[in-house]
């Protein structure tokens, strides 16, 4: 199992590639090309590390507080998070989705965080930045996306990270996004198809859980 000490050492040494390798070995579904891309982003590494820290703990820790503070300091003026290879004002959907996933996990699992309102505000600004990356077809587009295949793969991966977050679904054109994948399901390459399948399974599990609890289903 990936320990808190391993996460902390990797972050202290700025060895984000090692951190992502460890996270992949411990269940993060991250193929090599995507891992290499995310390893160039400090915010992505910190966010995925924070998400794992929250999964391993029951309440805030010095490490989770430090990672949260560092993430909030990296948020740009538009609310998003970028990559090392792109201007600070640019929003990279992959990196920003990693942060939204981590902050959402923190808010749901660590109820006693001191700066809850600040984290909520940062998470919601990041979701708004993701919404601004949505093109007319419903897919997300980032500064590093060169082809339609890039956009489809990256959008599908984003869905595995934050598709289960009600705030994300409410903050983007959720129906347009789902409709694109429904209409092009037979055209997806293996990587995108895998992520889309994972995202669909998560949505199905969420709806079944809500039904068992007697909760109203959120509109798609």
How is the main sheet built? none
Q: What is the distance, rounded to the nearest whole angstrom, between the alpha carbons of the first and last residues?
A: 36 Å
What characteristic shape results from the CA principal axes? globular
Computed over alpha carbons, the radius of gyration is 17 Å
| Mean pLDDT score | 88
SSE series: HHHHHHHHHHH
Please, how many helices? 11
Considering DSSP H and I runs of 4 or more, what fraction of the residues is helical? 55-70%
Low-confidence stretches: none
Estimate the strand proportion: under 5%
- Secondary structure: number of strands: 0
Q: Output the structural class.
A: mainly alpha
In short:
The protein has helices spanning 4-12, 16-25, 32-39, 42-56, 62-74, 93-109, 116-132, 148-162, 166-171, 174-183, 190-212. By secondary structure, it is mainly α.
Provide tags for this entry:
mainly alpha
Describe what you observe in this structure.
The protein is an all-alpha fold and about 220 residues long. It has eleven helices and no strands. It has helices at about 5-10, 15-25, 30-40, 40-55, 60-75, 95-110, 115-130, 150-160, 165-170, 175-185, 190-210. Helix 6 packs parallel to helix 8. The chain is globular and about 45 Å long.
């Amino acid at each position: 199992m990936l320990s808190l000490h391993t996460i902390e050492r990797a972050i202290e040494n700025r060895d984000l590639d090692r951190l992502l390798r460890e996270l992949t070995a411990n269940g993060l579904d991250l193929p090599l090309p995507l891992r290499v891309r995310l390893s160039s982003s400090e915010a992505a590494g910190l966010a995925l590390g924070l998400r794992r820290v929250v999964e391993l703990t029951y309440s805030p820790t010095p490490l989770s507080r430090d990672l949260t503070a560092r993430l909030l300091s990296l948020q740009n003026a538009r609310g998003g998070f970028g990559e090392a290879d792109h201007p600070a004002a640019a929003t990279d959907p992959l990196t920003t989705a990693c942060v939204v996933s981590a902050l959402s996990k923190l808010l749901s699992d660590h109820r006693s965080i001191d700066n809850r309102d600040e984290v909520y505000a940062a998470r919601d600004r990041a979701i708004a930045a993701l919404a601004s990356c949505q093109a007319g077809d419903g897919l997300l587009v980032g500064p590093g996306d060169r082809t339609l295949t890039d956009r489809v793969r990256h959008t599908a991966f984003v869905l595995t990270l934050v598709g289960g977050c009600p705030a994300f679904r409410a903050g983007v054109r959720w129906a347009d996004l789902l409709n694109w994948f429904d209409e092009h399901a037979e055209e997806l390459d293996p990587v995108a198809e895998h992520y889309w399948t994972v995202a669909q399974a998560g949505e199905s599990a969420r709806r079944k859980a809500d039904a068992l609890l007697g909760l109203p289903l959120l509109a798609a």
